[in-house]
Amino acid sequence: MTRGLGLALVTLALLSATAAPVAAPHAVDAHFAGLLNAPPTVPHVADAAGAWHAPFIYRWQLANQLEQRYDEDRSTRVPLAWFSGGHVVRSSDEAAAPLLLLGADSYGRDVFTRLLFGARTSLGLAVTAALAAMLVGTLLGGVAGFAGGVLDDVLMRAADFVMVLPAMYVALALRAVLPLVLTAPQVFALLAAIFAVVGAPFVARGVRAIVRSERRLDYAVAAQALGASDARLLVRHLLPSARGFIAVQITLLIPAFIIAEATLSYVGLGFPDPVASWGTMLQEASGNIRVFADFPWLLSPAAAMFLVVLGVNLVLQNSRPERLRDDRGAGVKSVL
Q1: Are the C-beta atoms of 29 and 94 separated by less than 8 Å?
Q2: Rounded Cα distance, 107 and 81, in Å
Q3: All domains of the chain, ordered by start, with CATH?
C-alpha cells in the first residue's frame, strides 16, 4: 500500500508538471496588482442564502491594506469558466476576481500557477542532473573497476576529491566568476552540471565495486574465453549487473537535487524572473517574516517538495531489495 501511495504522489507531480500550461489558470508572470498576498480563492456551490449553483467564486475585497487582509464580497457570484482559453478552469471575470487556488504572492502572482510551472523547472532539473550523474558515474566506475591498477586509483581518488568538496561554497565561488546576469537556460545548464559532478562519484564507487566483483564470476570468465572483447564484456555483461544499484541511486539523487536546487536558490543562485521554480518561490517567500503566521500558502513549494521526496522514498523502500536480488544474477542469465 505504501508503494502505491508513493507511485501516486510521484505520478501526480509528473502529471502536474507536464500539464502545467493547461492546468494552470494563468500565465506564470501574470500580476494582479490589487491582490498582493491575497489568500486562496475558495470555490463554492451554494451561496449565502443556501441556494445551489454551478461552481463559482467570490471576489476578494481589500479590508486592511496595512495588514493585507481581505474579505469575500458576497454580493456578486463569479462563475467558473471550464475549458476556456486553453485552460481547464479559470474565472469568468479574470480582471475583477481571478481564480487563485493557492492565493497570491507578494507580487500579486498566482501561487498555484507558479507551483505547477515550478514543478517543470525543479523536476526537470533534478531528472536531467540525475541522468547525467548516472551516465558519468557509470562510465567512470565501469572503467575503473574493469581496468584496475593505476587508472582505478586515479579515477577513485578524483571521485573522493569531489565527494569531500564543500559543494555550497564551490557553487557560490563559481557563481562569483560568472556574468552578473544569467539567462534561464544558462542557470539550468550550470546547476545541472554542478549536480551531475557532485552526484557522479556516488554512482561511480558503487558501479566500480560491482564490476570488480562480477568480473571474477564464471559467466564473465566464460564470455572472455569465448573471445568477447573488453568493451563487449564491460558493456554487454558487467554493467547490466549494476542496473539495480544504478536505479536505486537515481531515485536517491532526484529528491536530493530537488532540495539542492531549493538551497542554492535560497542563497541567490537561482533562476531569474519570470521563471518559476520551487527554490526561487521559497527564496521569495523567505523575505517576509509574516509568511508562517499570515501567508502560509506561500510555503506550498516546501509542501510539494516534501510530498515528492516522500513519494520517491516510499517507492524506493518497497522496491530496493527485489531489484538488487533480481539483478545479482542478470549477468549469468545473459550468458546462459
Answers
A1: no
A2: 25
A3: 41-99 (no CATH), 112-335 (1.10.3720.10)
